Amino acid sequence: MRLEADAAARGAGASLSPLAPLSLPVFRMLWLTWMAANTCMWMNDVAAAWLMTTLTTSPILVALVQTASTLPVFLLGLPSGALADILDRRRYFIATQFWVAAVALVLCVAVLSGGMSAPLLLALTFANGIGLAMRWPVFSAIVPELVSRPQLPAALALNGVAMNASRIIGPLLAGAIIASAGSAWVFVLNAVLSVVSGLVIMRWKRTHVPSPLGREKLGSAMRVGVQFVRQSPRMRAVLWRIGLFFFHATALLALLPLLARGLEGGGAGTFTLLLASMGAGAITAAMFLPRLRQAMARDVLVMRGTMLQAAATAVMAVAPNVYVAVPAMFVGGMAWITTANSLSVSAQLALPNWVRARGMSIYQMAIMGATALGAAVWGQVATWSDVHLSLAIAAATGVLAMALVQRWVADRSLEEDLSPSRAFKVPVADIAPEAGRVVVTIEYLIQPARAPEFRAVMQESRRSRLRQGALDWQLLHDISNPTRYVERIEDESWTEHLRRFDRVTASDVALRDRKLAFHTGDAPPKVTRWTVER
């Protein structure tokens, strides 16, 4: 793909400065758009939560505002990721911005006309969450197109800076507008910023290259995305780590309002100060991430980040005043972005471009699911005991759990070369099957003494075929001829079979050469393609 080739060309001599990606005009433009979008998200959450308190006194309805905001990200993460891989990412990104703008406009009209109600506010908050769910995977997939591979960690760290800066700016700006003009004008500003962001994205001249095989079906695209992640040892390792980290780290954020209230002179201002301290810590740490990545391996960095987060949580459990709590939250923010960025980079590098949005949507779903579950668990533990004991348990078990996962779910696989390859010859059928599954058989002749090694390599072949989208894979051994093995791959259709050739990477080519090294026949392995008759 031309975009990937351009990114690779930019890699030569690329600066590894934390701010280097901002020297690229397109990245700078989209990064500012991303920061504005996240600022709008925080402003909308604050305004909606405050507005709900003026519409009802029911605690459950007030709490459901947060649920309505985040639930779409969990429910629609995979479909939105599949769409971002299928459709033109530029147009899809633009559509998400105008969707959010339209929802903000409806919110504004409903408030100004006096027609707002609690159920309508929840519905519109959910609709706004749909826009967020659509936007995150496509932006995650776009970033590696904009920067070179060496600059990708810095670019992802800058995304974290944008998110944490917006976490500070959004609530402060929303609070000021609500106090001076009312909630409706927060939604007006959201609509304006979203429209402007959409217009800015329209200036991006991205070349979309549609597949000659046509668009994937949504159901099939979702299946392939899940299948790729399941068959990728590296992605599985990343998901275990990010899930466990957020499950335990979310205890601090979930219980922070109660902690703030319990501090000397604690109140809404104290809560805002603690959140701002965490955001400031994350922004500060982002500037040092390149040096940390050079000094430590990923798992070491993740483990130390987890320990630092646990230490910050433990200090917050016993902090008597803001003079202790603010530095602890600052350190917690540093640990959060260090760990999350390290794992986000690993996820990006484990995904080829054709499935990147789907893979990153699953990554985001793991974060959201772990956060939601962690908040419920640590909140319940605090109910049974108290807030301070709940935080102490979360800190201790977080370090223990991460140590166990790094031991038992170790990522020992070598980094794969996921650049696209056209080394495999695309098959041509005289009469292409119109419907029905396709079965491919490949026959190998293997010396019995080398059979164990061959079987081990074929397990890698199984993972490779399934990651490309095959429905099924089997290795058959001829009973009457011990040297004969048959690899059997089943595809959903002839089109999906051809689509697998578009997904071949340099790593797949190297794997094929390793398999051929075991073959002892005078001719290459025999390949036969079959259609399954109904």
Q: Quick recap of the structure?
A:
With 534 residues, the chain is mainly alpha-helical. It is 70% helix and 5% strand.
Annotate the secondary structure layout.
Blueprint: H1 2-11, H2 25-55, H3 59-86, H4 89-112, H5 118-146, H6 152-180, H7 183-201, H8 218-230, H9 233-254, H10 256-262, H11 268-286, H12 289-295, H13 298-318, H14 322-349, H15 356-384, H16 387-408, E1 438-445, H17 451-468, E2 472-477, E3 484-491, H18 494-502, H19 506-516, E4 526-531
Antiparallel strand pairs: 1-3, 1-4, 2-3
Helix pairs in contact: 2-3, 2-5, 2-6, 2-7, 3-5, 3-8, 3-15, 4-5, 4-7, 5-15, 6-7, 6-11, 6-14, 8-17, 9-13, 9-14, 9-15, 9-16, 10-11, 11-14, 13-14, 13-16, 15-16, 17-19
